[in-house]
């Protein structure tokens, strides 16, 4: 049931009609507000006169490529449309290479024909956008969105899913599977998976509504995207002791949202059918038959966490909603099965594959800060050289790495990382991801999420909040917690990735030797060193191991209880490998430094072949010279090493669509070997990007032999 608080707010929003855009609670033909399972549906229609569209919020190629982000007219009171524009701009640029030389607007994206030699696709795509909460309470509202382009064909109906990448909000897949679906004329079913950009400012007690506007938490009530489930008295005490902090939806819902990611994807598909049948068909196609799974092609797609959510949805799809899957770099955590190993070329076979995300990320979080020094040619390998040396020194003091010099210690740290199944091909990527706080952020958020911890718990001494970034107003306050500037908080819906550091909110070490500081510049009490909070990193790793990584002693007391909760949380998100014959294509970059192939895609491929045997219809495509974050390709040093994996996701979607619509064969599992640009100034062309072959050369075939996944070099 929808609460009275939410109902009052929802119905208080009037229908606003302008010359171009219709916005507001959706009304049915009889004039009554339309709901989906008791939740108010919000609809916006974009047409040619609107100045906006579904895919780019009207920014077009130039706007998306511009280094100047869109700004609201009133920095302290952005409108919902302005927040949407900011969100689309940032989410698109965060997931793909938007440079012309890298392929945007030429090989993929706006204006690119659906078929080689065909008509260019329109730069703006018009249609309807509908938003709704999946009602699961104020603490974990899940946002669903369906976009239906004007080019939707009732004679050849199709739906593509777009679960958000990472912990992003509902626009978190708009530039990936959303792009493909809208250009194809498919409806796109999005979900934020219960992560989203929910940011609760505990001091100011403000939250975001479904379209991003900030509101007092008490006034928002159940209409809040996320409100931390804590007692007001406890919140007040926490604010006094730990001021200027935030709770984030993925970390602090106390609900481990990942356990329901598959369900959320399936629910978004059901919402898409609701929209098509109850809204679009009566208005546009009154003579058309109802759209059903039996007469509508449904492809599950997305990248990273969204790709993992899609695989979980396909495994849990007992009603035949999903016809096929095409995902890229999925965060999939397969159940470990010791009946197979992973063999790449002549390298030693890897028996200890399928480590969960939390396990390998917390290991990286301990050792990568030192290992950065072992890769002097990698971008940002010396960005914080003194801190990297501090991490090496601290690890050596605790006996966790060997060597007398920082160089020797870094080499040993790199050895430990690679012996854990993280490929040497990933070593070049990791220093820059460290600078971006990728392993640090993931380790903290997932410890909280899997352990269903409260924001009040400050797991391993970490919290989220703004820190003063410079010498203003007082030099000694640099890197200390402070109130988030109002103008930054007002647009956090559009700028946040959902996992701090993000949107102006930093990762804070509450237990730094001199008081709370930004995690990067804090000092570990146990070492007295500026070592990027080794103490906190070891605490997070201990929760994965179930023991102190320095002494080897089993955890006890509250730490043991939290470690067990985390392991139970991980067990609830593991993939079982059974797609029940659903055709699927997984595309992964060999240099993926976020979801290592040996623990994600490769391991899932092997498990699926064991579980489904001859009934498996899974094709695994591994792309050399590709990594997890296409947005990094313009970084100096990356453009001559990597090509956009996004290109191959789009190709996989084309292949899956042809398979489902025209019964064309799926490609065999294979390694694809693109050629990066020779120089940063060079222009990437299709000649550099060999296609996924239906029948590749024997030397490129990826095989499952019954006891091994065999990957060619």
What does this structure look like?
- By secondary structure, the chain is α/β, with parallel strands linked by helices.
- It folds into three domains: 4-322, no CATH class; 326-334 and 578-711, no CATH class; 357-537, no CATH class.
- Helix content is 31%, strand content 14%.
- The protein is built from 20 helices and 24 strands.
- The strands form five sheets. It has a twelve-stranded mixed sheet, sandwiched between helices. A five-stranded antiparallel sheet has the order 10-13-17-18-19. A three-stranded mixed sheet has the order 16-24-23, with helices on one face.
- A hairpin with a 4-residue loop joins strand 1 and strand 2.
- Helix 10 packs antiparallel against helix 17 (534-545) and helix 11 (385-397) crosses helix 12 (406-419).
- The radius of gyration is 24 Å and the shape is globular.
- The model is unreliable at 1-32 (pLDDT under 50).
């Amino acid at each position: 049931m929808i609460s009275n608080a939410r109902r009052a707010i929802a119905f208080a929003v009037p229908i606003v009609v302008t010359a171009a855009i219709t916005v507001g609670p959706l009304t049915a033909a009889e004039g009554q507000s339309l709901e989906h399972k008791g939740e108010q549906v919000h609809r916006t229609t974009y047409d040619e006169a609107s100045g906006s569209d579904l895919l780019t919020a009207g920014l077009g190629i130039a706007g998306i490529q511009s280094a100047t982000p869109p700004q609201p007219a009133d920095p302290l009171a952005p409108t919902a449309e302005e927040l949407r524009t900011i969100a689309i701009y940032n989410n698109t640029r965060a997931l793909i290479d938007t440079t012309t030389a890298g392929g945007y607007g030429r090989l993929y994206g706006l204006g690119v024909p659906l078929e080689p030699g065909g008509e260019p696709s329109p730069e703006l795509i018009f249609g309807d956008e509908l938003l709704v909460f999946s009602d699961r309470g104020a603490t974990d509202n899940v946002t669903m969105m369906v976009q239906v382009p004007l080019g939707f064909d009732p004679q050849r109906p199709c739906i593509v899913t777009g679960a958000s990448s990472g912990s992003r909000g509902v626009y978190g897949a708009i530039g990936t599977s959303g792009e493909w679906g809208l250009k194809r004329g498919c409806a796109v079913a999005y979900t934020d998976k219960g992560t989203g950009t929910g940011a609760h400012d505990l001091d100011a007690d403000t939250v975001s509504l479904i379209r991003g506007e900030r509101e007092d938490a008490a006034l928002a009530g159940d209409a809040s995207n996320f409100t931390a489930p804590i007692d007001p008295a406890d919140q007040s005490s926490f604010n006094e002791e730990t001021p200027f902090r935030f709770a984030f939806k993925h970390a602090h819902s106390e609900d481990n949202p990942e356990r329901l990611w598959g369900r959320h994807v399936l629910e978004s598909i059901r919402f898409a059918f609701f929209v098509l049948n109850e809204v679009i068909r009566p208005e546009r196609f009154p003579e058309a038959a109802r759209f059903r799974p039996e007469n509508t092609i449904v492809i599950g797609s997305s990248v990273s966490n969204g790709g993992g959510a899609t695989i979980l949805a396909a495994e849990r799809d007992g009603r035949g909603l999903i016809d096929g899957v095409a995902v890229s770099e999925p965060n999939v955590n397969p159940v470990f099965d010791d009946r197979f190993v992973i063999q790449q070329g002549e390298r030693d076979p890897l028996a200890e594959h399928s480590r969960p995300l939390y396990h390998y990320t917390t290991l990286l979080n301990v050792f990568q800060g030192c290992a950065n020094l072992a890769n002097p040619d990698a971008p940002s390998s010396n960005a914080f050289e003194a801190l990297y040396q501090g991490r090496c020194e601290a690890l050596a003091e605790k006996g966790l790495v060997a060597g007398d010099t920082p160089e020797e210690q870094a080499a040993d740290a790199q050895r430990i990382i690679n012996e854990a199944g993280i490929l040497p091909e990933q070593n070049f990527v990791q220093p820059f991801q460290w600078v971006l706080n990728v392993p640090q952020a993931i380790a903290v958020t997932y410890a909280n999420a899997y352990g269903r911890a409260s924001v009040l718990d400050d797991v391993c001494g970490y919290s989220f909040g703004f820190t003063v970034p410079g010498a203003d107003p007082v030099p000694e306050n640099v890197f200390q917690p402070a109130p988030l500037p109002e103008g930054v908080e007002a647009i956090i819906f559009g700028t946040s990735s959902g996992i701090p550091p993000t949107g102006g909110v930093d990762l804070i070490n509450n237990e730094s030797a001199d008081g709370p500081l930004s995690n990067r510049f804090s000092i570990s009490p146990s070492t007295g060193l500026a070592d990027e909070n080794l103490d906190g990193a070891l605490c997070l790793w201990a929760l994965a191991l179930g023991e102190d990584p320095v002494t080897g002693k089993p955890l006890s007391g509250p730490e043991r209880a939290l470690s067990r909760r985390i392991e139970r949380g991980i067990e609830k998100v593991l993939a079982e490998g059974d797609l029940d014959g659903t055709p699927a294509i997984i595309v992964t970059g060999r240099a993926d430094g976020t979801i290592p192939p040996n623990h994600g895609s490769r391991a899932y491929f092997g498990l699926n072949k064991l579980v489904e045997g001859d009934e498996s219809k899974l094709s695994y495509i591994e792309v050399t010279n590709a990594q997890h974050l296409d947005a990094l390709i313009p970084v100096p040093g990356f453009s001559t090493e990597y090509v956009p994996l996004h290109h191959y996701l789009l190709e996989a979607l084309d292949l899956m669509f042809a398979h489902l619509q025209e019964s064309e064969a799926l490609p065999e599992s294979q390694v694809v070997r693109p050629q990066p640009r020779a120089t940063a100034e060079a222009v990437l062309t299709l000649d550099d990007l060999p296609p996924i072959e239906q029948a590749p050369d024997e030397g490129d075939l990826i095989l499952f032999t019954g006891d091994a996944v065999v990957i060619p070099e």
